[in-house]
Amino acid sequence: MDIIQNFMKIFGAAVLLPIIIFIFEIILGTKPAKALRSAIYIGVGLAGLVTVLNPFFLGLMSKPITDMVVQRGIQLPYLDTGWALLAAVAYSTTIGAIIIPMGIIINVIMIGIKFTDTLILDLWNFWHWAFIGSMVYYTTGSYIYGIIAAIAIELFLLWIGDVTAPQFQKFFKLPGITIPHASAQGGIIVAIIFRWIFEKIGLTKINVNSETIRRKFGIFGDSVVIGFFVAVLIGVIAWFPEIEQLTTWSRILALGMGTGSFIYLYPKATTALLEGFAALSEKVRSLLAKHGSKRKINFGMDGALCVGNPDNITVALLTMITTVPLIFFLPGNRFLMMADLGVTPFFLAITAVAVFNGNILCAYIVNVINVAITLLFSSAMSPAFANLVTNIGTKLPDTGAAMIGADIRPLHGIFYYIGLQPVVLVASVVVILALMYARSKNPAVFWKLVGYKAESKDIDTNK
Amino acid sequence: MTKSLKGLVLCADGVATSTIVLVSIREACEEAGIQANFQQGRIADVQATIENGNYDVIVSNAGTDLDLPKKVPIFNGVPFLTGIGKEEVMEQIKAIADKK
User: Could you say which of A136, A235, A359, A396 is the most buried, measured as most Cβ atoms within 10 Å of its Cβ?
Assistant: First the structure.
């Protein structure tokens, strides 16, 4: 372990992952030229995120955040620079280095013993597991617990993917697909709890028109524009005493433009990273998909397939607007969600909207609750993330009271805290395995929990 | 005469799944001898993108039931993600390139 960590500290995260991916690709038979190109793209994506965009945004926001925290007393020091950094960091750790082969092996074993009917083809998203695993590893100091935590969340996602499959397939019109994606399933537990409550009090009978809302609030769907306005708001709050000076306004507008610029560019860097991944993904996918066709297997995919659903967009837009005041007024929140304002509400809405079968009111309430939980988990775990980033050899710039923040969705948070307690962690793995077995024997019981009305023809399809 | 194709790959956020589809289509077109120029786009901006672009084909990961300003053939991108049904969709895309 130490040799690898020393290697990482010398070369930096942006070099280790490309080398590892290159080696995997060559082992699987990819042409060297293609493997080299994809490795370079991964390095380019990582460098773009870690050495260019992140320091830029952190540096840009450091003065206004420091002023806001120190002089105005508004405690929002943890800056959200986007989920892509979390993925980049996750893949740059020793757990990230092995998560893909390990994750595939576990998935295949689970399929073999019929504990799951899902084969995850979406390799990119293994980073979520590596992320939680690495956070647990660096906080507890135990590599083994980090690995177990990563496995625990993978197993849970395989299980919940299977449980939500019929309802998701019906609601999002995605036959043969499950969504064992940590962000998409982030809100599932809250959704299940509140589905039970709301049905008891009859809230699920109230209908709200999705399309009118979407048309009225459509302008808010542009995260670049939203980011601009939130940044301007931060500038106004931070520099309010000097608000009459023209120079203050020029600084405020520069803040807005810089933020918009960051939000526009960071997906582009992520695309470079993903393009690099695509070669490996494609190779593994073609090998796995052949394996899967012998049995009725669902394919595990990214939640992005569901985000474009009109009801999802409506709920997410409303949530996004609600999130801005929530950031400032939620007691205990220290997390300034910025880059992910246009992402997190959209992914968390997926479970809400599917479990409530498109009921906008119920889904909206649940989604806001999930975002509030996200803000609190992010506030609590950002210091651990900053610690992780420094430990993998990335130097964080001196940014005063502003600190790098991590956008931690509910499921990630839950598994992190489970991971910190060895006994709870091992117990949770046992419970999840038991749940997987229970589902394989009597799936309809679980389907009901997530709002699926099973018809008699479905009982046979899970053999 | 090389066959060429200008296409748009749509995703909800324009990043994750559309990149995978993009790489997959690009390679499939290369193998079929089609010079492909595929760009990525988001569902939120699809109206403006189609209006201003001259796309021969759209591949979407976020549903094919879209309200488009111009009539452009649209295909489901999920086969490119799972590999299942990919050949059928590619046949249809190749047919469009042949007709140009």
Answer: A136
Q: How far is CA A389 from the centre of its chain?
A: 17
Say how far residue B29 (Cα) sits from the centre of its chain: 11
> Tell me, what's the pLDDT at B1?
54
Domain boundaries, chain A: 2-461
Parse chain B into domains and list their residue ranges. Answer: 3-99
3-class secondary structure, B97: helix
Q: Would residue A150 be called left, alpha or beta, if left means φ above 0 and alpha means ψ between -120 and 50 degrees?
A: alpha
Q: Which of residues 163-182 of A touch B (CB under 8 A)?
A: 173-174, 176-177
When pLDDT is averaged across residues A218-245 and rounded to a whole number, the result is 86
Spatial separation of the C-alpha atoms in residues A211 and A409, rounded to whole Å? 27
* Chain B residue numbers touching A226 (CB-CB < 8 A): none
User: Per-residue DSSP letters for A400-411?
Assistant: TT-EEE----HH
Identity of residue B83: G
Phi-psi category of residue A457: left, alpha or beta, with phi > 0 → left and psi -120 to 50 → alpha: alpha
- At B14 the pLDDT is 64
Mapped onto helix, strand or coil, the DSSP state of residue B6 is strand
**A301 and chain B: CB distance < 8 Å anywhere?**
yes
B74-76 vs A298-300, strand pairing mode: unpaired
Amino acid letter for position A165: A
- Pairwise CA distance, residues A80 & A83, whole Å: 8
As a whole number of angstroms, the longest Cα–Cα distance in chain B is 36
CA-wise closest residue to A404 among A9, A55, A40, A42: A55
Q: Does A333 touch chain B if contact means CB atoms closer than 8 Å?
A: no
B3-99: CATH class = alpha beta
Determine whether the interchain pair B78/A285 forms a contact, defined as Cβ–Cβ distance below 8 Å. Answer: no
- pLDDT bucket at B81, cuts 50 / 70 / 90: confident
- Asked if the interface predicted TM-score (ipTM) of this complex is over 0.95, the answer is no
pTM for this prediction: 0.87
Cα B76 to Cα A126, A224, A332, B10: the distances in Å are: 24, 27, 44, 10
State how far the Cα of A439 lies from the Cα of A448, in Å rounded to an integer: 12
Give Cα A382 to chain centroid, integer Å: 15
CB-based contact B74:B29 (threshold 8 Å): no
Residue corresponding to tokens 């007393």: A73
Q: How many CB atoms lie within 10 A of CB A38?
A: 25
| Neighbouring residues of A21: CB distance < 8 A, sequence distance ≥ 6 | A38, A39, A42, A276, A277, A280
